[in-house]
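Sequence in, structure out. Go.
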Amino acid sequence: MSKLKDALAAGGFPLVVEVKPPKGVEVAGMLAPVTGLNGQVTAFGVPDNEHARMRLSALAAARLVKEAGGEPLMLLTCRDRNRLALESDLLGAAALGVENLLLISGDYVHQGDHPDAKPVYDADSVQLLQLARELMAGRDSAGNPLKGAPQFFLGAVVIPEAQPLGPQRLKFRKKMEAGADFFVTAPIFDLDRYRAFRREVVPDGVKILACLKVPSAEEVEKAARGELRKVYTLPPAVIQELSGGDPEEVLFRGAALAGRLLRQLKEQKLADGVYLKAKGRADLAAAVFKAAGL
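Output:
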């Protein structure tokens, strides 16, 4: 059974911390948060070639997280696989005991370290949710029966800062109808904009994990120059707070900021849990939790 599913169903406030699959096969660094934080968090997010940069397979990484005693939340992107491969990896995840899945389209390849690679996008994130639901019903997308149906807890992504919000609202509802059990937001730094998003887009009862991110000094500098090309923004007050100092100092100031946001999200009941991107570092995640008073 999924601890993440149980925590959300029970009205808890699960904490998910993202790990970083390596560019190589040395996995000790990736697993450090699992061994260091396992008693404090519900699950560990496992990216799938994040930002179109080639890394260790998310499926292999998710299994390693599970063997280390953690519960994985595995990301699966449409970018790198056709439907045959997507369904095969979904079955592989189930066979390896990986139940929690976050199904996403994936960043375009020109943003990553293999810009000449061919993107696939045979299915989009809505269709991938539908594929997973069909497998859970005991058949593949061609209608062929399965020998044993997988069980998943399916997540999808939503972007609170999308402008205009209309298309995002439409896609949000399509993902709900396709079978998403919960949603993870893009990183949040502006609670006022996030409140407006919740008010205008999210129906009552939908489970939302708010994504909090510890930004690097490089990201802060790009934001200050207006060059941060992301699905989120750093407000001027955040840029001012995090600017200056050596890169490690900036990271820990960012962790303190994320901790304050986490505390506000929980106290004001603005989210059902948190998905934390802390560079895959246990010390930064611990600093966030300390700042949040957890």
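Check: The chain has eleven helices and eight strands. The mean pLDDT is 93.
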